[in-house]
């Protein structure tokens, strides 16, 4: 019944984990879910208020404009200037998205012909791979290893692969490894993209979730980046708005026009009231971000210190709300966590073949639950 391409789609790992989790809950197990990266904290009240006000205004009840409200795009430009010191023209260098997933899922369709190569990190956010499959492109996984700081080694990509490459996905701060990228790396990426005529898509969905004074840069700050790429941003993690579906693609106008053309054919934009809430988020006080990061930091410290005291080797992340822990066999370890301790963690393999040897914990549960998880892990057989 289904088209052939459905057969090549990997089973969405989170859906499978959800099914296993549901089974355990049915058996009465008190599950501690450190699996999916969905903040447990609520959206700040001033943003919710802005939505309510905008939702009551009939002016906002119509089809939205495709590119996004001019006022939303202006708010994005102001935020970008202030946060990253990058100037964007709201007219054609900003496109609203229904979450950054929307942009990631559709951008290959604008640039990839059957057989063209998309370079994507492994481990990596699964949608890089599936969006490539939908566009009938071929994925080339760039391994992210601890030795290389979880940055792809561009020189390691075989020449014949580079020759066919049309698009490159990057993601820093990184899901799932929580690694961050120095500007020097972005300079290398720009040179590589220019030399080989490759469109760069920098996924910066976790730009605001960071600790210990670290501030994630924008790829677009690198010299020449605006000529070769775009960056995906999201309000999901920054303002605890995963359910609202709001993000933006910013950067090179021609690349954005390609993505925009695809999207005008498949969706009708973001509900205007949600964009008004987005304006309130981006232009209002940013204190809520610091508060959320302080919560994640406390959880990070409890989890990392606790795991270390149990003999596990873990690095404290500078950014994102993930802890990427080396283990021998990721599927076996995740299964043991679930069966012996009632803990959901994500096996690294779910993010690509180079994710083997790791599990990912998300810091999206209260500190008491994380402490409880550590107590249970302490009771597991080793
Ligand atoms: C690396 C990365 N990019 C993009 C997204 C998509 O987020 P959203 O569509 O909510 O903006 C996620 C969500 O988990 C992610 O981890």
From TrEMBL:
Superkingdom assignment: Archaea
Residues annotated as domain Aminotransferase class I/classII large: 30-377
Cofactor(s) this protein cannot do without: pyridoxal 5'-phosphate
Pfam families: Aminotran_1_2 (PF00155)
Keyword Signal attached: no
GO MF terms held by the record: L,L-diaminopimelate aminotransferase activity; pyridoxal phosphate binding
PANTHER family found in the cross-reference section: AMINO ACID AMINOTRANSFERASE (PTHR42832), L-GLUTAMINE--4-(METHYLSULFANYL)-2-OXOBUTANOATE AMINOTRANSFERASE (PTHR42832:SF3)
Name the UniProt record assigns to this protein: Aminotransferase
């Amino acid at each position: 019944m289904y088209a052939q391409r459905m057969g090549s789609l990997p089973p969405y790992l989170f859906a499978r984990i959800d099914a296993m989790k549901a089974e355990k809950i049915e058996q009465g197990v008190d599950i501690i879910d450190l699996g999916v990266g969905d903040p447990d904290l609520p959206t700040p009240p001033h943003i919710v208020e802005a939505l309510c006000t905008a939702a009551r205004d009939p002016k906002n009840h119509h089809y939205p404009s495709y590119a996004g409200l001019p006022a939303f795009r202006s708010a994005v430009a102001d935020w970008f200037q202030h946060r990253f010191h990058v100037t964007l023209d709201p007219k054609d260098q900003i496109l609203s998205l229904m979450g950054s997933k929307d942009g990631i899922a559709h951008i290959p369709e604008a640039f990839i012909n059957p057989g063209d190569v998309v370079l994507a990190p492994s481990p990596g956010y699964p949608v890089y791979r599936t969006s490539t499959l939908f566009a009938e492109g071929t994925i080339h996984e760039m391994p992210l290893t601890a030795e290389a700081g979880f940055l792809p080694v561009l020189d390691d990509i075989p020449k014949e692969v580079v020759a066919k490459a049309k698009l490159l996905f990057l993601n820093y701060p990184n899901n799932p490894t929580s690694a961050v990228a120095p500007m020097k790396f972005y300079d290398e990426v720009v040179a590589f993209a220019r030399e080989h005529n490759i469109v760069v898509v920098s996924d910066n969905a976790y730009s605001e979730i960071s600790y210990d004074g670290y501030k994630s840069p924008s790829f677009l700050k690198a010299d020449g980046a605006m000529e070769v790429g775009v960056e995906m941003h999201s309000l999901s993690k920054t303002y605890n708005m995963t359910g609202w579906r709001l993000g933006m693609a910013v950067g090179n106008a021609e690349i954005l026009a390609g993505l925009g053309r695809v999207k005008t054919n498949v969706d009708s934009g973001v509900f205007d009231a949600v964009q008004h809430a987005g304006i309130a988020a981006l232009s209002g006080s940013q204190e809520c971000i610091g508060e959320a990061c302080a919560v994640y930091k406390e959880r990070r410290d409890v989890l990392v210190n606790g795991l270390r005291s149990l003999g596990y080797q873990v690095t404290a992340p500078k950014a994102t709300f993930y802890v990427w822990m080396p283990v021998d066999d990721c599927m076996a370890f995740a299964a043991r966590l679930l069966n012996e301790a009632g803990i959901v963690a994500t096996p690294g393999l779910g993010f690509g073949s180079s994710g083997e040897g790791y599990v990912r914990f998300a810091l999206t549960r209260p500190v008491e639950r994380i402490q409880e998880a550590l107590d249970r892990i302490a009771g597991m057989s080793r």
